[in-house]
Design goal:
Elements: E1 3-8, H1 12-27, E2 31-32, E3 41-46, H2 51-69, E4 75-80, H3 81-86, H4 89-93, E5 99-101, H5 109-124, H6 133-136, E6 137-138, H7 143-146, H8 149-153, H9 157-162, H10 168-171, E7 177-181, E8 183-184, H11 195-199, E9 203-204, H12 207-219, E10 224-228, E11 236-238, E12 252-253, E13 268-270, H13 271-281, E14 287-291, H14 300-308, E15 315-317, H15 325-331, H16 337-350, E16 355-362, H17 369-381, E17 384-391, H18 399-403, H19 410-433, E18 439-453, E19 456-459, E20 462-465, E21 468-471, E22 481-490, E23 495-500, E24 513-521, E25 526-530
Parallel strand pairs: 1-2, 1-3, 3-4, 4-5, 5-6, 7-10, 10-14, 15-16, 16-17, 23-25
Antiparallel strand pairs: 8-9, 9-12, 11-13, 18-19, 18-22, 18-24, 20-21, 22-23, 24-25
Helix pairs in contact: 12-13, 13-14, 17-19
The chain binds S-adenosyl-L-homocysteine, iron/sulfur cluster (SF4) and FE3-S4 cluster.
């Protein structure tokens, strides 16, 4: 069996792509290994969103180059957003790369691997010619932006999602959580962002495909599904427009912006409709989440669907990016600070127990101290449970890169980054502190146990029963005591650590919901005590 090593960089979209790719390759007989040195084929699923993300992948690519130059036979494939953004130039700069595959072409990966292996064999037998570029690179280029509804209907990528082989036994992934893509690509063109170039135009999957996939995952034991889209709330499927040759509904290019002013009607499945359908048609799904929300066009219909559906998590990841109207305009975000605040107010009116999270970019071109102060004001004003904070990274191919000089010096970016991080940490601590004394329903993600004995504290192994880890109590002798820490998340995605020391606590399993009394809070997480009586049935 041919061995493959696959490492993933970047966002949840890439994590899901890697899972799908691995399933596809396993199904045709490839075997996955944990270390690149053990693999005949090394794949890096790359991210291009910031230069740093590319640097990480490039350093891995460099190491494979060292091995190849030392005479090792290993095939190197670069897949994902960096492959798409850099294109065949990668072959020139990194000749050790055998093939490239963009995120929109992953269904072609087996073919690319196959021809790279044939070429490797031929060169081993003395051939000097390399395969043609077409044999070595599957990239979308601008094609996906030009695609029509029909082209999306012919979209082979959909088959990759549809043939999903969710198999935690072989992947070692958590079995109680899964991602499901509802939209690919992005139509927003924020001026700093490579994603519309690397992932192409917004394409929406037919609702029935999404629901069938969710149901399949739940039947396999998944408790929490996160729906994925770059602007997930823009999901909108117009029935009867995109059909395959055999009359099936097919993936469909996203509609224009004007449609968001109107609610859906007969023949349209809006994001709110999709949420309600998944929630109502799959009652065994314990939790439904979604990321990432675009702060504009987030209608009350979505908030109402969330309010009416107890198992939809009260969590909104809706990046503000900046607290300065001038910078938001330069970023082409399409909303003002007041509009963002209105959206958050609306959200809390409908869902008083919701949590809010987001992203900010500091040091965007021309950002002054006043602009940055406005960002700090926004973070102080709204109850963000957390924010991911990034220093602006100029990306070739984006309009900010060609139109705006990267004029905020790096030390200033760094200082703003640190200042915002420490402000966010205060805000997080305050948001978390409000939950002390409450009882939260927590989905248990992990259990770590330690055994104290006369020899000191030793880690003891977990055993798995019906797919869930439980503490191996039988192995504990009278003189030893076991303590365990459970780690999980609230509906609002706040991490909770639970110390437990009574044997009744050990009845809780990974992937189950538990009632937890919150005893303490810190900026990063909550601490709590499991309620006696085992897992709860509610959300
Ligand atoms: N679609 C999502 C974000 C996808 S990229 C949205 O619009 O909210 C994830 C985050 O990376 C963005 O929210 C942004 O904060 C950050 N980011 C994107 N491009 C960047 C760049 N060039 N420099 C720094 N941060 C960037
Ligand atoms: Fe990038 Fe903006 Fe699209 Fe998000 S919405 S992926 S930041 S272009
Ligand atoms: Fe990176 Fe591509 Fe995701 S650029 S953030 S892997 S969509």
């Amino acid at each position: 069996m041919t061995s493959v090593f696959l490492e993933t960089f970047g966002c949840q979209m890439n994590e899901l792509d890697s899972e799908l790719v691995a399933g596809q390759l396993r199904a045709i007989g490839y075997q996955f290994v944990d270390r690149p040195e053990e693999a005949e084929i090394v794949l890096y699923n790359t991210c291009s969103v910031r230069e740093q993300a590319e640097q990480k992948a490039l350093s891995r690519i460099g190491l494979v180059g060292v091995r190849k130059r030392a005479g090792e036979r290993v095939i190197l494939g670069v897949i994902g957003c960096m492959a798409e953004r850099d294109g065949t130039d990668i072959f020139r700069r990194h000749p050790q790369v055998d093939f490239l595959c963009g995120p929109g072409e992953l269904d072609k990966l087996p073919h690319l691997i196959d021809s790279a292996r044939r070429a490797d064999l031929a060169s081993h037998e003395g051939a000097t010619e390399r395969p043609s570029l077409a044999e070595r690179a599957a990239l979308s280029g601008n094609k996906s932006r030009r695609s029509t509804t029909l082209a999306a209907a012919e979209d082979n990528l959909e088959s990759l999602d549809l043939s999903r082989a969710f198999d935690p036994e072989t992947t070692g992934q958590p079995r109680h959580r899964a991602y499901v893509r509802i939209t690919r690509g992005c139509n927003k063109f924020c001026t700093y962002c490579v994603v519309p170039n690397t992932r192409g135009a917004e394409v929406h999957r037919p609702p029935q495909h999404v629901i069938d996939e969710c149901r399949k995952l739940v039947d396999l034991g998944v408790k929490e599904i996160t729906l994925l889209g770059q602007t997930v709330n823009h999901y909108r499927y117009q029935h009867g427009v995109a059909v395959t040759a055999s009359g099936e509904e097919a993936a469909q290019v996203g509609p224009g912006l004007s449609v968001f002013r109107a609610r859906g009607g007969a023949g349209t499945t809006t994001f709110a409709d999709l949420l309600r359908r998944i929630h109502d048609e799959i009652p065994d799904l314990a939790r439904l989440r979604f990321v990432t929300s675009y702060p504009r066009d987030f209608g009350d219909d979505i908030l109402e669907a969330m309010r009416d559906s107890a198992r939809i998590c009260r969590y909104l990841h809706a990046p503000a990016q900046s607290g300065s109207d001038r910078i938001l305009r330069l970023m082409n975000r399409g909303y003002s600070v007041n509009e963002y605040i209105d959206f958050v107010d609306r959200a809390f009116t409908h869902l008083p127990d919701a949590t809010l999270a987001g992203d900010f970019i500091v040091g965007f071109p021309t950002e002054t101290d006043e602009d940055f102060a406005a960002t700090c004001d926004l973070v102080r004003r709204l109850p963000f449970k957390n924010n991911f904070i990034f220093k602006y990274s100029p990306r070739p191919g984006t309009s900010a890169f060609s139109r705006l000089a990267d004029d905020v010096p790096d030390p200033v970016k760094r200082a703003r980054n640190n200042a915002l991080l420490s402000l966010q940490s205060e805000v997080s601590a305050a948001v978390h502190a409000q939950l002390v004394g409450s009882t939260q329903t927590v989905l248990i993600d992990d259990i770590r146990t330690t055994r104290s004995s006369q020899r000191g504290r030793n880690h003891i192994g977990l055993i798995t029963v019906n797919g869930a880890s439980v503490v191996e109590q039988a192995s504990v002798s009278q003189s030893d005591s076991v303590s365990a820490q459970f780690v999980g998340r609230t509906s609002g995605d706040i991490i909770v650590a639970m110390d437990c020391d009574s044997s009744t606590d050990f009845g809780h399993h990974v992937g189950e919901l538990a009632s937890v009394f919150i005893t303490r809070a810190s900026p990063l997480l909550l601490h709590g005590r499991l309620s006696v009586g085992g897992p709860t049935a509610s959300s």
